[in-house]
Specification:
The structure is a single chain. By secondary structure, this protein is mainly α. The protein has a domain of 115 residues. The protein contains nine helices and no strands.
């Protein structure tokens, strides 16, 4: 019986190992987005230090730009890269139907069930082509956070020219809190994302070579 199970698992592995899990366009936008996001976060921390919202600042060792002017230059450069790359990702995700296939449906029952399974070690990672409910929620959430962080960033950068956008966020000061909250959410996502890549290394391999 054990030999049959072993043979089946080997056959399943052979069948899935040659399957394209992450197409080329997904891998390209993923890594471009990773670089842009890290640049934005680190330069954003330097900008935050110049006018903190809370009673703490970020260590200089994890910031980018050296000073406010340098950080702003890095931040704006990364912003354009993130915006263009993000628009490409959103467009291709909608056109190819990837968002519909990968991220839907999401239900509270499914998220709670998969969360419980994850903490009890019962969540399977055998099929990387299918996202569980927790992954769907996290990926959908980080897309929303990415859109909000760009829009709130614009409202902070151009509060006079884009008064209507700044007003939508409740004014300049509140837009800063929205911007910071979205940054914190994205950093939290990255921590979980990297942790899962370490726990399930084949997911990282798929994002590098596609299979």
């Amino acid at each position: 019986m054990s030999s049959i199970v072993t043979h089946h698992s080997e056959a399943e592995h052979a069948a899935t190992s040659g399957k394209v899990i992450q197409p080329a366009w997904v891998r390209i936008v993923h890594w471009v987005n990773a670089v842009a996001m890290v640049m934005m976060i680190m330069s954003g921390w330097q900008i935050y230090n110049a006018s903190p919202l809370f009673n703490f600042t970020f260590s200089h060792s994890i910031t980018l730009g050296g000073w406010l002017g340098g950080a702003l230059q890095w931040h704006f450069a990364a912003m354009w890269l993130l915006m263009v790359n993000g628009l490409v990702y959103l467009a291709l995700g909608l056109i190819t139907g990837r968002f519909r296939k990968k991220l839907l449906p999401i239900s509270a029952t499914g998220v709670l069930g998969d969360t419980r399974a994850a903490f009890t070690g019962g969540l399977s990672h055998a099929d990387l082509s299918t996202y569980n409910q927790v992954q769907r929620l996290l990926y959908a959430g980080v897309i929303v956070a990415g859109i909000l962080i760009v829009l709130s960033g614009w409202s902070i950068w151009k509060p006079v020219q884009l008064q209507w956008l700044t007003a939508l966020f409740g004014g300049y000061d509140f837009a800063r809190y929205v911007h910071f909250s979205c940054m914190a959410a994205i950093v939290g996502f990255l921590v979980i994302h990297i942790a899962l890549a370490i726990v399930v290394p084949k997911s990282l391999r798929a994002m590098i070579i596609g299979r």
